[in-house]
Write a structure and sequence with these properties.
297 residues, methyltransferase, SAM-dependent_MTases_sf, methyltransferase activity, Methyltransferase type 12
């Protein structure tokens, strides 16, 4: 299997990189992967990761919720209960950061289309990209959405989108800098780029260490810190305007991490650790389990 071995940091290009921990793929292969860190921009990344043509089998799991929309199991049931609320909040966020009641939005990594469905109902003209054929089929069957394959990114109209969103997507993208440059081109003047990303500098990441579910190797190629996100954006003529915590992620990630760590659910511990993580993020969103970055040109 062809793999990518980084000699330099995939964000800043620095050579001051070294391994910091090893993490298991608990979802599909049970393989162990090495995670390295850049001392210059603080990015962490999965070393010797499968290349773009080889990583597909690592997504083939009925429990991979963004592709299957499954409600099987306690964790996925909880995910869906929370999602109905968070989808409405995301629509409000889009309106707030763009200053528009309606407009054009591009969602990259649209999954099964639930987010775009909400925006479509709210009067937005929606475009979605999704690499997984099964997820695209679910989006069509469930919401009537015609999601495009990622290759369509190169043919979209420049400067056309009032908002571009990537919810837990950028960490999966092999051609990181090419993607960011294209996103900058697609943003309309005054448009908002919204990134939702796990934060390995959060309290729950510290608690669970190599068992932290949001490492999700090898599907997560990169493990971002706020500093590394700011560096990446600056390299492409964009900057972070504000940060927001994703409050529910600390509980969802802790639930999965308890399962990975102990081989069984640990609901009470997960709730307590989620609360500990959110307490640290209350006055400092850069400490949140997952962070929403509001950015623009």
């Amino acid at each position: 299997m062809p793999v990518i071995h980084y000699q330099h940091c995939p964000v800043c290009g620095g050579a001051n990189i070294k391994p910091v921990l090893s993490a298991r793929d608990f979802t599909v292969s049970q393989q162990v992967f090495s995670i390295w860190e850049c001392a210059d921009c603080t990015l962490r990344f999965t070393q010797d990761v499968p290349d773009q043509d080889s990583i597909g089998p690592f997504y083939q799991s009925e429990t991979y919720i963004s592709h299957s929309d499954t409600k099987k199991g306690m964790v996925n049931t909880a995910y869906h209960l929370v999602r109905s609320y968070t989808l409405k909040e995301k629509v409000k966020l889009i309106r707030r950061v763009t200053g528009k009641r309606s407009g054009r939005i591009l969602d990259i990594g649209a999954g099964t289309g639930a987010f775009l469905d909400q925006l479509n109902k709210a009067g937005w003209k929606v475009t979605g990209l999704e690499p997984d054929a099964g997820a695209r089929s679910v989006a069509t069957e469930k919401y009537g959405l015609q999601l495009k394959e990622p290759a369509a990114l190169s043919s979209l109209e420049a400067g056309a989108y009032d908002a571009i969103t990537l919810w837990h997507v950028l960490e999966h993208v092999h051609d990181l800098h090419q993607y960011m440059e294209r996103i900058r081109e697609l943003l309309a003047p005054g448009g908002a780029l919204i990134l939702g990303l796990p934060n390995y500098q959060s309290a729950d990441a510290y608690i669970y260490a190599e068992n932290w579910a949001a490492y999700d190797v090898p599907r997560h190629l990169y493990h971002f810190s706020p500093a590394s996100v700011k560096k990446l954006l600056s390299l492409h003529g964009m900057s972070v305007k504000s940060l927001l915590p994703m409050w529910f992620d600390s509980f969802y990630i802790s639930l999965l991490s308890e399962q990975y760590k102990n081989g069984k659910p640990g609901y009470i511990a997960a709730v307590l650790n989620g609360l500990r993580s959110n307490k640290k993020a209350f006055s400092a969103p850069e400490n949140a389990s997952s962070v929403i970055y509001i950015a623009g040109k």
